[in-house]
Amino acid sequence: MIALESLTLRTILKQSTRRFKDRIALSTVDGDSILYGRFGERVEELSRLLHDQGVIPGDRVALLSENRPNWGIAFFAITTMGAIAVPILIDFHPNEVHGILRHSGSKAVFVSKKLLGVLEDKEFTHLTTRILLDDLSIIPPESSRDRVQQLIDQGSREIARLKEVAMRVTGRIPPEVREEDTAAIIYTSGTTGHSKGVMLTHKNLASDVLACSRLVDVGEEDRFLSILPLSHTYECTLGLVLPLMTGASVYYLDKPPSAGVLMPAMARVRPTVMLSVPLIIEKIYKGKIHPKLTGNPVIRGLYRVPLLRRRLHAAAGRKLLASFGGKLRIFTIGGAPLAPDVELFLREAGFPYAIGYGLTETSPLIAGSPPGSTKFRSTGFPVSGARIKIDNPDPATGEGEILVNGPMVMKGYYRDPKRTADVMTAEGWFRTGDLGVFDRNGYLFIKGRLKNLILGPSGKNIYPEEIESTINEFDIVLESLVFQDDNQLAARVHLNYEELDRLFSRLHLTESQIRDKMRSILEDLRRQINEKLAAFSRIQKLVEQREPFEKTPTQKIKRHLYV
Questions:
Q1: Average pLDDT, integer, range 179-193
Q2: 309 in a domain, yes or no?
Q3: Residues 65 and 71: beta-carbon distance below 8 Å
Q4: Domain containing residue 537: CATH number
Q5: Last residue of a domain, which of 168, 186, 206?
Q6: 508 is in which domain, residue-wise?
Q7: C-beta contacts of 435-438 below 8 A and 24+ residues apart
Q8: 3-state DSSP call for residue 225?
Q9: Which of 113, 114, 359, 533 sits at a 20 to 30 Å CA gap from 305?
Q10: pTM of the model
């Protein structure tokens, strides 16, 4: 079991670079690798560069880039010198990026060459230094006027640096980063559309990483293949800090993780650990595996027999593991609910999936199950240090809002005491906004979001997410969203249009006939859906959603855009 001298990212860096000096820390799939010893040196070099640019403890430094080894170097350089990292999701609209830079008051920004245009022709009062993350070089000003201003800024930075030195000499600034110091401010883009700056301390992140290391066995022989954005807490904490603390190696793609990029990468790296969101494995199952199991009439008949279905799933699972490089032993799924039919396949296929639940505000993981200990439809049990309780539980079902307390719970929302007070109880419990229930064995089951809860005509609680899981099991449906419309339950459905196009092409239908056929398909689908639902939660109306739903970085639908 790993022990830390103090719960800070500086301690994690110091211990790892000493213990694993000659092992690979970070690498691209096809590029150069960075050993732990060199990683530590580059972090120190970059911290000095930031210091020379006038960045001091408490200053905010933004990160705007795709995944790459230099992202991790910059993140540790910022946080281990006592400054505060502000990771920005590259999927944010430029206006959102500009708003975050202004709201955070970032003094410096690391930006990739590809995203440099997002910052061009924009003036930010506090932003005095721009560093190209591709090669960690300072981006020079573009005009003589800017050069004059830069010289003035350099003079101001030098004064600030001398003040800092004087304060250190007099003992007014501690020489070490403290556990309660803010390490990162992570701006969420949730399903409500209101971005908030979540302040996570060194203790928050280090505690959560330690809890994760006790949940899953990760060590120096492990190879992570990173496919999720590092600017999200899920990947940053579990996909960067966790492997670096345990001596594992992390490999990055140089392109988005499409099938054409991902498959060769997995064959080359042969990862042992991967972090994923449900959409990735659901696409693989619906696009590749399920059609083969149900396309042939003979196999489809065998598939209806539970014993034979399990054998077919086991055979498909072996092929799936081989396609992932053959060495995968932990495939973590989090960020959104996993479809029931996909989870059933993973269980019967013997695929080594782990389940996790958490939020940005909790660093993020607060509950989970490792491979071999998962329970169907459950998100697992509380991780070490996390105290979870159900607030105001329903007497009949035991369901209520999930509250959590522990060292991984955020410091608060940056410059937003009202929102912070809204989600924190007087006793220090964080209100997750999620509804859940524990079973008798201590496994947590998530029912849905409190704000999405619909009260049925008979007074029954209706959870849209549970109905959506049922709808999404139909082959013709890719994704869905359930909502209340004039006191009736309705659902938007995004269909498998590739399959429909093939069907219409074979039938040689006219435009008018296609419209009639679509109405028939939707009504037939509604009838089949309702056969699987309780009477109080049946759908009265299906609405065709022609375009894919807009989603958050963890692939949750932005519900506020559609209801």
A1: 82
A2: no
A3: yes
A4: 3.30.300.30
A5: 206
A6: 453-561
A7: 435/399, 435/400, 435/401, 435/402, 435/463, 436/379, 436/390, 436/399, 436/400, 436/401, 436/402, 437/390, 437/393, 437/397, 437/398, 437/399, 437/400, 438/390, 438/398
A8: strand
A9: 533
A10: 0.89
